[in-house]
């Protein structure tokens, strides 16, 4: 059954003078969702896990939650109670490099798969464009933090929200919930990803 509510959550930060936005989608069957609670759960994982896998050259700004279904509503901006930045004295790779976490739903086809590109990859965590074992472990810990809150219902840290993939194929306002598929796992990738739109002279 489709979820009663679907929302978009954007992790907004800055790296090397540019804004970084990581877009995630969530569903919930709560009658009156507490979107601030969703944002705070994401911020917890940023403050306790993501900051360990990213350089202090990346700085967290806010979470922006936009309810998409059943009604499209104004974005809700949530800030952290204290500043969050990555690991001190750890140089980052160029901003077009990113850590990659695959969002899997257990279903086939591109419409049921998602990807999370994460900024501020630490140079010393990478060798020949691949994460070292210690570096990959940091990404695994961030994925585990998200999974405990947004995938595993039995987890003591579980929330009322489920992370997933929102397919854009044939989507309309009325079909947002039907186009959303909850994730079954988050899979960190060892290979460093490249965001071509961030390279000079590429993209807009």
Topology:
Blueprint: E1 5-15, E2 18-28, H1 35-53, E3 58-69, E4 76-78, E5 97-104, E6 113-118, E7 126-127, E8 130-131, H2 133-150, E9 162-166, E10 180-182, E11 185-188, E12 193-194
Radius of gyration over C-alpha positions, nearest whole angstrom: 17 Å
**Largest sheet: spatial strand order:** 4-3-1-2-9-10
Overall pLDDT score: 93
Roughly how many Å apart are the termini? 38 Å
Global geometry:
globular
In words, what does this structure look like?
The protein is α+β, with helices and mostly antiparallel strands and 204 residues long. It has one domain (5-198). It is 18% helix and 34% strand. It contains 2 helices and 12 strands. The strands form 3 sheets. A 6-stranded antiparallel beta sheet has the order 4-3-1-2-9-10. Strands 5, 6, 11 and 12 form a 4-stranded antiparallel beta sheet that branches. A two-stranded antiparallel ribbon has the order 7-8. It is globular and about 45 Å long. Mean pLDDT is 93; it is low at 198-204.
């Amino acid at each position: 059954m489709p979820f009663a509510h679907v929302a978009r959550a954007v992790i907004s930060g800055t790296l090397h003078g540019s804004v970084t936005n990581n877009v995630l989608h969530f569903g919930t069957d709560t009658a009156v969702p507490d979107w601030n609670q969703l944002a705070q759960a994401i911020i917890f994982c940023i403050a306790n896990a993501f900051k360990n896998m990213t350089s202090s050259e990346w700085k967290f700004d806010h979470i922006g939650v936009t309810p998409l279904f059943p009604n499209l509503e104004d974005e809700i901006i949530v800030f952290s109670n204290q500043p969050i930045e990555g690991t001190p004295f750890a140089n980052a790779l160029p901003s077009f490099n990113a850590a990659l976490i695959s969002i899997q739903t257990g279903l086939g086809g591109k419409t049921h798969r998602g990807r999370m590109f994460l900024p501020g990859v630490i140079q010393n965590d990478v060798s020949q464009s691949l994460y070292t074992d210690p570096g990959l472990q940091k990404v695994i810990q961030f994925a585990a933090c998200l999974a405990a809150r947004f995938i595993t219902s039995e987890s003591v840290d579980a929330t009322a929200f489920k992370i997933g993939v929102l397919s854009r194929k044939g989507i309309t306002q009325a079909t947002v919930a039907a186009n959303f598929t909850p994730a079954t796992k988050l899979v960190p990738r060892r290979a460093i990803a490249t965001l071509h739109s961030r390279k000079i002279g590429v993209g807009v």
